[in-house]
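Dear colleague,

Following up on Tuesday's group meeting, I ran the structure prediction for the two-component complex that the binding team flagged. I've pasted the input sequences exactly as they went in, so you can double-check that nothing got truncated or mislabelled along the way. The structure tokens for the whole assembly follow below. Feel free to forward this to whoever is handling the docking comparison.

Inputs:
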Amino acid sequence: MMAELTALLTHPLAQMVLALAAILAFLGVNGLVLLYAERKVAGFIQRRPGPYEVGPHGLLQPFADAGKLMSKQLVAPMGADRLLFWLAPLVSLAPVVVCFLPIPFSPLLTGMDVNLGLLLILAFSGLNTLALCLAGWGSNSKYSLLGAARAVAQSVAYEIPLLLAVLAVAFQVGSLDLSAIAATQAKGLLSWNVFVQPLAFAVFFISAVAETNRAPFDLPEAESELTAGFHTEYSGMGFGIFFLAEYSYMVVVCAVATALFLGGWDGPLVPGPWWFLGKVFALVFALMWFRWTFPRVRFDQLLNVCWKWLIPLGLANLVATALLVKWVG
Amino acid sequence: MEQLAYAAYGFYLVLILAGGWAAVRCRDLVRALLGLIMTLFGVAGMYFLMAAPFMALMQILIYVGAVSVLIFFAVMLTRAPGGDAGQEDEERRPARRAVLALLSGVLPAAILAAVVLTQSPQALALKPELPLARLGQMLTGPYVLAFELISVVLLAAMAGAVVLGFERRKGA
């Protein structure tokens, strides 16, 4: 009996199912924690306590929110394309699960050691744009459609500097394997890529904020102009899944930034995974901080920042890195 | 593991065929695009199955992530939501249309099939994955002519698009 059980559990298919279930559980808990954290951060930045009534210091607020979202009726607007409308949230959330596989929490704690891990994350996170498009189109609402149009222009523009920044690091290390890139930075603080490639880090992080549609680049949902942009028409868990996907992408982006630039699991005293998670959530905190500090940019400003600053800087940095790698080796 | 591979092959095949069917038959342009994306995904899966993960990921990154989104953008700019795909009058010479469609579908398939059947490929001993550096060397070494020619084709397409855009603007 025991032997059969271990045989079943070590079957590659069973392992895959287990890994996916673990990631989904992490995503759910992550969504709850970040929901609370964001409301508290927003509160403190605006000099108010944030959620305070449900449980001690409002700790049970996310559970109340989740309960509300899950028990609300799902409504599709009249004239909506129901297939596209309900497909969109799923397309938004499903690829995130894949993105978590190659993230190196520590040399041992890596979901799947893919030597193209970086490319895997970039490829699958691109699907989020598609989900926003489907949501905007399927809703049969002008707010949603405007949000989708903005999402496309924004994500297509900002994908270029993001890739340029990532490529510079990949050139320098000579690998697309996130674990290998993190391992080269394990030689103390000054070997972290944020000190070797500060420009690439800045370009990467700014583009990442835009790619995750977070404020100040949250034009696709811009609540003061477009009601809620692409997810205007979603109720209950339709909105809930988009929300979960957004928070999961934040973690993915910050995890990639940690592995590429902040030394991955490198750090003294406590074991690697704690350092990795600590750095990831410090970056997530920075994202929230941005959101409640900067006002939303205008659309022309958004594209100007990309085409006139980030892309030239990214290109210059890439060329300089390539030359240095070629000459110095 | 081998059965898993067969199951995956069947799954991708169904994905490709169903996606292709949807892309051709759907009246709604966005649904047709969704079919196209499904097909592209299936092709990416086939690359994975053939131990070419770099190709597979590039397929997803470029075609699914970028090209289809651009197609979506084009659809959104040209047509009001809920609009039908280009209406063609179906009464005009239906036989001729059917023959032409069949010809354009069957001819490439026949040529490919002839090549595959006569040049029967070696038994598939799965090669280890090709390192990226080697791929780059091949592209800039033995295959440099093909590589450059493809970029010329792209350039021609871009120039054509720009010319078309300018003419449209002059007419308006």
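Residues 130-172 of chain B form one domain.

Cheers,
M.
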